[in-house]
# Entry
Amino acid sequence: MVKGKKERRILAFTGAAALVAVAVNLFISAINSQKKQKKKELPGLSVCVKLSASEVIKLADHIIAKSKEVHDSVAAVPLDKVTYVNIILPLAELEALQFPLVQSCVFQKMLSPSADVRKASAEAERRIDAHLHMCSKREDVYRVVKSFAARGEWMSPETKQFVHCLVRDFERNGMSLTLSKREEIERLRNEIDELSLRFIHNLNDDRTFLLFNESELSGLPLEFIKSLERADYGKVRVTLSSHHVLPILEHCKVGATRRMVAMAQGQRCGEQNLHILESLVQLRHKLARLLGYSSYADYVIEPRMAKSSSEVFEFLEDLSAHLTELATRELCVLKELKKKEEGESTFGVEDIKYYVRRVEEQKFDLDPGLVKQYFPVTVVLAGLFKIFEDLFGLRFEEISEPEVWHGDVRLFSAVNLSSKELIGYFFLDLYSREGKYSHTCIMALQNGCISSNGVRQIPVSLLTANFQKHNNDAVVLLNFSEVVTLFHEFSHVIHHICNRASFARFSGLRVEPDFVEIPGQLLENWCYETSSLKLMSGFHQDISKPLPDEMCRKLKGKHESFSALKLKQELLLCFFDQIIHSSENVDMVELLKHLYPKVMLGIPLIEGTKPASCFLRLAIGYEATCYSHLWSEVFSADLFASKFQDHLPNQSLGLQFREKVLAPGGARDSMEILTDFLGRRPSIQAYIEQKNRCRP
# Structure
């Protein structure tokens, strides 16, 4: 990582970079001057968070125009005149300056209270995405960037990495190929997108339902049964949506009902979606071969931490083998309980969730409603802030009366405790409202980097959730799962604002996709430590009373129970995903028939089902990368066990982690980052040992 005065001299303020910077600043000033009640300006905050529908569209068009101007300027440089200043710097500066403006346009579709603004934001995103897609295929820009790269005139390791990423991204889009092959790649990608959407639409449009008597739903909460649509002859309708299927598989005492629901779910969109998935895989392999890869898996994994499909297979096989003994013990416990409750009937995959819940109820006896009473959101946030401040040497300060898009939104600054330096901002938008995005997540609004005048651009992030406010005066209480999710997502906020990379391209969360979850997975461990739980909890009627020790112990125990068997189910999908995307002409039905008993310790696939037809992750978003979650979970366990587990709290280790793991962003290879922090390559050993400590 390059830093300090030398770095600032390198990023001189020249040429097209200066042109776009001036234009952007003028545009921001024009927008701000139009506000009737302009809030106080905050240093380093370039995001426009409160725009009208017309301003969103105007800003999007401005972004596109300025981007085209810079790309045209770069492309016009003769090949024998290419330099860092006239080729690389303008593109880097464009990314840094325009990213917060792009986010100003597109985050509004998820969070703005105004339907008109949300609609304008969606249109702005469509226009910007179309423009960026066009830029990714500009042969003239690729040619000059490639020419500079061929000279090997690197000003720093990070500059070399940035140029490498520019070239790699162009070439992964086919820019090194002939025009006819590029056209074929475009055709394949369009066809893949169309088939992926059709797969999803088929599942969304599926209206299959089952009819049951209430006695066949024994064990389910009365409120759930009352919520079901009534049919003839006193029966109720159960659909195959997750909010019906999961409660039945977890709570229904009747084994035949669980099996019927699991079978129907495994037959959902059967032949139709199976054919689509087979076609998708064939098209993906064809795309990969055109780009010079032996398989689609190798194409997807190359820019990731794992690097190759063979590395992923080795990881999955090693993990599965080491979990088999423990998973077998866990399965025996479940089989014994089923035998007691249902007699000699065969144990099937449909029984796992139900009997895991039954054992956990008997062993841990946790009332979720009572646990919730100890987690008022204000207490959780105060404790969460305290944990992160102490661990990473930070201080969070709330900004009074900030410019925001809704009255519930809060803005905080993050200050380095030792130097008093402002290092970032983050918005919190935590409560549900009409039209708002319904999941908890983080969005980067502004990337950190060294800007062209040598000043560090401040990273800005946004954490949004959908916690329920029953009325304005009531205390908002969180389920424990919501506490863990909030803690995990705030870990991403910290990762983003602790970035010290020089280029916006490598800011914070711009890292290999199978690395990005590792810090969050690591820090999630704090949610199961008694000292942390005490800080984040307080009985809602008397917040001086934190979660009792026994509850803390049970929450940790439940989290770790039957983990090997649960992981075997995840491994099944990972193996299937990796095999079909690494080999051609795979019979998916036969493959699953083979994998099920092999991975799931003899539990067979339910006869007549084709579960690949509803593997949504394989249709879009996770193809050839389903392993990624397990990868981050395993290596984060190594980090925790090796460094933190016996040393909580420890600011010295926290600062080391902040400097060595969080600060580089994507500027360094992630495996090198972890190896440097651990003093060796990460392994699965700590993860396996952790699981074996929780034997049933």
Remarks:
- The radius of gyration is 27 Å.
